[in-house]
Structures are given as structure tokens and as C-alpha cells.
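call fold(seq) -> C-alpha cells
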Amino acid sequence: MYLHLGQDTVIKTDDIVGIFDLETSTISKNTREYLARAEKDGRVVNVSMEMPKSFVLCCDKREKITVYISQISSTTLLKRSRFMANLSNV
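ret:
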């Protein structure tokens, strides 16, 4: 299944490693350093034209890691991903 992150960006739910709240997770120095390194390496995709609220860490089948920055809250993205998983079980 797929998850819509905002704007014109859709990702495969199988590729999702984690969905994180940007405000609470960036309290950690390690998270801030990871995001800065990912941005420097060109692995960050900003799909937000507004204030970002979450980031989604993805790893595809070729083990390429991408970080998506979204204006949609982590709670909403999590609900959407569970809804899509429930649909696939029908």
C-alpha cells in the first residue's frame, strides 16, 4: 500500500522505517545530527510548503535511505498508514 505525505508525494508503506514528530524527536542531539547529516548527503526530501511537523524515515529494497519532511502530523500519518493496512486485509 501507499501513504500520502503531502503535496504530490506518495511512498510505499513497506519502505517506512519510522514516522517521527519533528518537534519532540529533535530534542535529542543525535536526531538533530542525523537529520543534518542526511540533508548534507542529499537524502532529505522536503514535501512541505508549510511549517514541517514530522519526518518519515524510509529504506527501499536497494537499502537507499530517504528522509521525508512533511507538514502532516506524525499522528495523522500513523493513522493513515494503519487505515491503509486495514484496507489491504479486507
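The chain has a mean pLDDT of 90.
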